Amino acid sequence: MSHTARALLPLAVFFLLTGCGTAPAPKTASTPTTELAPSPNLYVGRILAIDLERHFAFVALTPSAPPIALQPDMVLLARNDELRSTANLRTSRQLRGRTLGVQIIAGQPTVGDEVVFPTLP
């Protein structure tokens, strides 16, 4: 028993001297928190396929796509995952089930870009 006590004595002294204190947390600059407002854009769907020669694309519509956005000659925006606008689109009369044909009027969308209906000018 005395051999065990002698072996554990340095360990006990080490824990006694170091204690259970921790280093203080680094101070961070406090930034004012602002609440994010919901997007005024209405989600329509995602680019399904693109024909760059004819400046045409197909959009896979969501079940909640707003009916106003599906009317012919409405302007839609395509944007990437970083929410940067990639193209302006104009709806056509080609609506088959949950797929909408759109004309590319500016920009270059890519497959998978989300399509939104901008509600603000």
Descriptive tags:
121 residues, 1 helix, six-stranded antiparallel beta barrel, mainly beta
Could you walk me through the main structural features you see in this protein, from its secondary elements to its overall organization?
Helix content is 14%, strand content 38%. By secondary structure, it is mostly beta strands. It is elongated. It has a six-stranded antiparallel β-barrel with strand order 1-2-5-4-3-6. The chain contains one helix and six strands.
- Tell me the total number of β-strands: 6
Helix count, DSSP H or I runs of 4 or more residues: 1
Q: Main sheet, how many strands, which sense, barrel?
A: 6 strands, antiparallel, barrel
**Order of strands across the main sheet:** 1-2-5-4-3-6
Write down the overall geometry.
elongated
Fraction of residues in helix = 10-25%
Residue-averaged pLDDT: 84
Q: Estimate the strand proportion.
A: 35-45%
Distance between the termini: 85 Å
- Would you tell me the structural class of the helices and strands? mainly beta
Q: What string gives the helices and strands in order?
A: HEEEEEE
